[in-house]
Amino acid sequence: MGLSTVIDVLENDLFFKYPTILEILLKDRTTGNNIIWATNDYKMYGLDYYPKSEIKVKSITGYNTRIIQPRVTKAQQNQQMRTRYKAEVFTPAWVCNKQNNLVDNAWFGLDNIFNIEQEKDWLTRKEIIPFPTYDGKTWKDYVLANRMEITCGEAPYLTSRYDMVTGKSIEILNRIGMLDRKLRVINERADDIDEWFTWVVYAYQSIYGYDYQGDNVILARENLFYTFLENYDYKFNDAPNMEQLKVIADIISWNIWQMDGLTYAVPLLEHDSYNKQLTIEDYLEGIRLKKEKIYCKIKNWKTNEIFLFKSIFGEYNE
Prior knowledge:
Blueprint: H1 11-17, H2 21-25, H3 76-86, H4 93-108, E1 115-118, E2 121-124, H5 139-144, E3 147-149, H6 178-189, H7 193-205, E4 207-211, H8 214-236, H9 242-255, E5 256-258, E6 265-274, H10 280-285, E7 289-295, E8 297-300, E9 305-308
Parallel strand pairs: 3-4, 4-5
Antiparallel strand pairs: 1-2, 6-7, 8-9
Helix pairs in contact: 6-7, 6-8, 7-9, 8-9
Protein name: Restriction endonuclease subunit M
Organism: Candidatus Mucispirillum faecigallinarum
């Protein structure tokens, strides 16, 4: 089939090809609603695009299908504004590769497992990745190892479908993201389609990322989803079925989530909390409400436990 890498995923195409997938990719698993815009960049389009407004299917399809675009296609002025006010800086692929290599050097106990670094580039090693490692770890251990990209933007450390700075697409064999590397290992080791899909599911369950702004969350989720489509096509010269797509989309909607990294809470949203048992006097005087943050939930797929992300680091001090 030869599925080509599309830099700017058109939500219209995604919606019409896979009607339920876009709805899943817009979900906020903490609130049960959709993720929100959490940025002023889209206010000119109306009330549905205000920072606290949910991102709806209709807001990004039809005539609105090009509203959300990768950073490299945004106007230079818009890029600069987001860098200035949100510290949004997208990293070139060669830097992502260099840093991901450091992680793998430590895991394997050897250097240059996936590629050899060159001046602002890399040379992909063509031979099958060697397992077990010097300490007996297997390819399955590698796939199961948890990885996370903080403030992930479009998730360049997880999947390098394209260089986030230049916009140049990257062939599957040359990709350097943490998920890309897991998928390469699976492509090399699992030929049976059921075994392949089982381990791809494990790979997706093992990678996490979060971002503050809703458009980045969508872009990251779309990149991970299309990475699955492209690897399925690369491996089997075919397209996955809807059941498989829903499984992957569901994992992505949990593992790539919207969060303020300073508070571990959903950006901009709070709920009312009563401080005590209410009495008639409270109603007469006016109910005093305390605003509480909505702390983000994530999922441990190995135990199926859903828990607050902040519990990993302890209580957040107001």
